[in-house]
Fold this sequence. Notes:
This protein has twelve helices and 21 strands. Helix content is 28%, strand content 25%. The chain is of the alpha+beta class and 389 residues long. Bound molecules: dihydroflavine-adenine dinucleotide. Dihydroflavine-adenine dinucleotide binds next to helix 1, helix 2, strand 8 and helix 12.
Amino acid sequence: MQVNTLILGAGAAGMMCAAHAGPSTLVIDHAKAPGEKIRISGGGRCNFTNMHTDPSRFLGQNPHFHKSALSRYTQWDFLDLVDRHRIAWHEKTLGQLFCDDKATQIVEMLRAEMAQAGAELWLQTALADLSHDGTRFTAQLEREGKRTTLSARNLVLATGGKSIPKMGATGLAYEIARQFGHAITDTRPALVPLTFSYQRFAAISGVSTPVIAETNGTAFEEAVLFTHRGLSGPAVLQISSYWKEGDSISINLLPGHDLTVSLKSARQAHGKRNVTTALAEVLPERLVTHLSSDLPLGGNVGDLSDKRIDELSDRLRHWTLTPTGSEGYRTAEVTLGGISTDRIDSKTMMSRDVPGLYMIGEAVDVTGWLGGYNFQWAWSSGVAAGRAI
Length: 389
Ligand code: FDA
C-alpha cells in the first residue's frame, strides 16, 4: 500500500497536521480513540488555546525555534476554526479559552477537518518496523492481527511525550528521531505537582491560597494548593517547568499585601489579639496553624516589635522550601525537552537531514506554560508541517 504521508499519532498535533496535509494521508494510533488527551484536558472542557500566546511563554533549548510556527498559525486562527464549527467557548482566566460544553467537540472538529481533507485514520494500529531508502519510508503496520506494508513519501512523528503512560504515552517519536540521527534533549516531567517527604503538608491538604511562587529566577502569581504529597495548584505547576531536583523554591504568601502595615495598625487597635488570629485575616487559618510550627507566631500583636514584624513579613514573603521530587510522568501534563530543534526547519518542521521526515507537537523540545499554550503549539506545529507537505 502507498500513501503520500504517514502520520504517527492521532493526538492534537497529528490530527491538525492531517487536516492540512492533503489527500493520501494516513494517520495511525495505537489507542482505541483519537485525541484522548484532548478529551480529558481542562477538566473535560479543553483549554484549547490562550489569547496571550507569545513565544516568551514557551521553554526549549532554542528560545527562537517556535516563533515561526506560532506566528503563522496563531491562537486567533484556531479560534476562527472553533467558531466555524460553532463550538461555544469562554475565557476562564488569564486568557485561557475553554469549551462551554465538552472537550470532545474539539476532537470531533478535528475528525471532521481530517475527513474533509481526505485523511484516513487507523486506530489500534502499531508500528512494527520502519526503514527509509533515501526517498521513501517503508512501515510495517499491525492492525487487527494483520500486517500491512506501507510505503510513504513523508513521515510525521506526532506521538507526543512521555506524560501519562497509562493513557498510552510512549517514547516512540524519540526512538525514531534517534534512529534517523536526531538528538534528544534531556526530558523531564513538567506542569507537575512537587512532592515533599514526611507528608509535610498532609495536615493542610486541600488548603489553597494566592502566592507568588519562584524558582531559578522565574515567578508566577497564581494559587498554590497544599496536598497530601506536597504542593500543587497553578503557581506550582508553572514553576515545576523551571525546577530541577535539588533546587529550592520560594513562596511569597503575601502577594499584594503589606503585612508590616496591617500588623502595625493591629498593634495599635487590637494589641491583645494573638499574632495567629491577626495573620488568619490575611491567610487561611489552617495554613497559619501549620506555619506556627516553623515560625515564632506566639504571643500578642501588641508585644511585636517593629523588628519582629519586619522579620515575620520577610519570612512569609520568602518561604523557602526544597521539594524532594515531583509526581513524575504519572500525572505530569507535559514532557519538558524532547527531539532537539537543532536539525529541524522551524518553518516546515521537517528534518534538515532526512527529507520527508517531520516532527511536531509535544515530542519536540518546545514546552508551553500551563493555560492552553501546549495545545496551541500542537496546532501551530501541526499546521506548519501539514502546509509544507
Ligand atoms: P498527544 O499526546 O496529544 O498525542 C499523541 C498520540 O500518539 C496519542 O493519541 C497516542 O495514543 C499516540 N501514540 C503514542 N505512542 C504511540 C505508539 N507507540 N504507537 C502509536 N500511537 C502512539 N494542554 C493545553 O494546552 N491545555 C489543556 O487544557 C491541557 N490539559 C491537559 C490535561 C492533561 C491531564 C494532560 C496529560 C495534558 C494536558 N495538556 C493540556 C497538554 C496537552 O494534552 C499536550 O501538550 C498535547 O496533547 C500534545 O499533543 P501531541 O499531539 O503532541 O501529543
